[in-house]
Known about the structure:
Blueprint: H1 3-13, H2 18-25, H3 29-36, H4 44-53, H5 58-61, H6 64-102, H7 106-124, H8 138-162
Amino acid sequence: MSFGEKLKNLRISNNLTQDELAEKIFVSRTAVSKWETDRGFPSIESLRYLANLFHMSIDELISDEDIKNKVLIDKKNSRRFYWAAVICLAATVASAVAAYATRIYYWSVLSIIGIAGYLVFAALCKYKNQSMRLTKAIAPFIISRIVIAAAVIAIAVYSVVQL
Length: 163
């Protein structure tokens, strides 16, 4: 039984609506709905509230499969943010090149927006491969981040100077 199914059964057996449960554990009804459909997973704090509310331990509430599902959800979200960051970076480069080639510097505004998008999505894209920290693969990862950051800063400076 998944965490979502377990939570839904506990909620129904305690005669609670999603709204009532959400209110008792200080989250939104949407969060409870996501948890019950296994599209999300509660924070540690929310798990504590749920365990106390249903008079059980956190271990009884979640299983190893639930933890694996949480990792998969995190990887999926991280992948989405990564691709959004890549798209923003590509748009930044394209608009900077267009600004330079056409001498229409309104493209620079799009470049600045692309930089902002890249920075936001890159910050949200967490690299969570713990085994990488212990291997030599960390050096290329860090170097690639430095090169990308340098390119983004150069484009930002160029875009601002052209305005």
